[in-house]
Amino acid sequence: MQLRVVTDQPWVVPADLLVVPIAGEPAWDGPLGEIDRRANGELQALHAFGELRAKRFTSSLAASGAVKASRILTVSVGDPVDLDRETVVHFAAAAAHRLSGRVTSSMAVWLEPLTTLAGGAEAVAMLVARGVVEGGYDPATIYRENVKTAPPILDELILIAPAGADVAGLTAAAVRGQVIGEGANLARTLANRSSNDVSPEVLAEEAWGVAEKHGLWIDVIGPEKATELGMGMFMAVGQGSDNPPRMIVMRSGKKAEKDAAGRHLAIIGKGVCFDSGGISIKPSDRMEEMKMDKTGACTVIAAIATVARLAPGTPLLALAPAVENMPGPHSTRPGDIVKALNGKWVDIINTDAEGRLILGDAMTYAERLGATHLVDVATLTGAVARALGDMVTGAFGNDQAWTDSVLEAGASAGERFWQLPLVDDYLQDMESWYGDITNSSGADGSLVKSGLFLREFATKPWVHLDIAGTGYYRKTKPFAARGASGASHATLVELALAGAQPA
After folding, report:
1. Which of 79, 303, 433, 446 is most solvent-facing, going by the fewest CB within 10 Å?
2. SS3 416
3. In DSSP terms, which residues pair with 437 in a beta bridge?
4. How far is it, in rounded angstroms, from Cα 373 to Cα 494?
């Protein structure tokens, strides 16, 4: 998709479609009134009819009259007082998603009504370009050709900026947004692919292709080496499947090299390519969704590629422990005791609490590779979805300054996080008769206890992001198709780029 920034009036820009943001109840004066006048009053008529509404992410298609674009699409952003970065991303994604099944090759987006956002026109340009890319994604096209209900593939995106805007600066910002959107879509495609298509070995092959494409160092650790290294928790999960586990390690920059912020950042993603629950088998209802349990791994693989595109050579580690959690003759049983890479003995009470096991060994290994700061991303607990739904990611951390940095990156990326407490009093519920800690202790406080378990494997500043609610949508949103959402990808990219050397 070609990007172009212009500073013309919105009604004189030729395109297949002009996207007009509606902030609050529309006032038919100024530029919006002029667009409506040139469209022969069509927008006011739709408003009076109840088709054009102020409710956020509602939309209407109108004939264009004398406006140079062939059609006009309005997308509402709600009360302008509440305009934030997430809303801008979703506004643009809703515009692209609204075109599902339509034939359009060029889209022009009028930015001026959004430029009250903190960061001004450059922030809006970046977020709109990203949103258009993400909103144009449809997982139905992964396995099928000629999906008639998919959004159109745009040849050109035109951003209409206010008069006097810095066109070069806005273009650079828009390109950055486009690259971040493309990275999110890569993560979504990997996550959406079925389990008979993407095994741990295939995910490692995909990561290898990403590494070769973007000049990244990669190492893939198989079962023999993982056992030799002492990754007892990782192997306890992976040994039950005929598809052997793979610990995927990717690096940008030199070994243990510090970035401009003085960090050697490691991003770690849970890669359970299918989660049956193992011996502690899950109910059959919605078990098909468990192909999504690899979403964290897909996210960090895509994120390091995105960072490499935007700031090549930025020091960054990405670890993706990839397994299948299956019942079988070699599966770990409830009550088995295994030794973690950091030396702790873990009493596995529930084999369906497997994500924390593979993440714990990956976190220890990241520190051995020189990581000074850790962030893990995982579809870890159903409890976080019950507590926060599908629009807010739960966050835990062992260092408040580092947690604040991650949350600030999330705010910059337009993603919502809610910090949850690590309550030390709950640790007594995780005591084992035979080991140092159990991996599960029942439903009460299970969300907090998942964070407490992971904290046992971090000696450096660490944050855990539980995307079990936000990682994929069970139903279509105005701004997204069903399936993987790309949640936390942009946050990880913003976090890593904070340590990039100035251009």
Report:
1. 433
2. coil
3. 346
4. 15
Q: What is the DSSP string of 436-460?
A: SEES---STTHHHHHHHHHHTT-SS
Whether residue 76 contacts residue 59, with contact meaning beta carbons closer than 8 Å, is answered with: yes
Query: Which residue numbers are catalytic?
Result: 282, 356
Please say if the pLDDT value at position 503 is more than 70: no
Q: Tell me the DSSP string of 240-305.
A: TSSS--EEEEEEESSTT---TTS--EEEEE-EEEEE--TTSPPPSTTGGGGGGGGHHHHHHHHHHH
Q: Which fold has domain 2-186?
A: Leucine Aminopeptidase, subunit E; domain 1 (3.40.220)
Q: What's the maximum distance between 2 C-alpha atoms anywhere in the chain?
A: 78
Q: How many whole angstroms separate alpha carbon 37 and alpha carbon 64?
A: 10
For 269-325, the pLDDT digits (tens) are 999 999 999 999 999 999 999 999 999 999 999 999 999 999 999 999 999 999 999
Q: Both tokens of residue 164? A: 């006097």
Q: Is the dihedral of CA 483, 409, 468, 89 positive or negative?
A: negative
How confident is the model at residue 442, as a pLDDT?
A: 82
The DSSP call for residue 26 is -
Mean pLDDT of 363-380: 98
Scanning 311-429, the segments in alpha helix (DSSP H) are 355-368, 382-388, 400-413
Confidence (pTM): 0.97
Query: Which helix or strand (DSSP H or E) is residue 373 part of?
Result: strand 373-378
Burial 152-189 (b: 16+ CB within 10 A, else e): bebeebbbbbeeebbeeebbbbbbbbbbbbbbbbbbbb
Q: pLDDT tens across 190-219, in order?
A: 999 999 999 999 999 999 999 999 999 999
Tokens linked to 439: 């991996």
Angle of the 400-413 helix axis to the 489-497 helix axis, nearest 10: 110
Q: Residue 327 gets which letter from DSSP?
A: -
Specify whether the CB–CB gap between 312 and 501 falls below 8 A: no
Q: Which of 91, 85, 79 is nearest to 134 (CA)?
A: 91
Any idea where the domains of the chain sit in the sequence?
Answer: 2-186, 193-497
Relative to beta strand 417-419, strand 345-348 is: unpaired
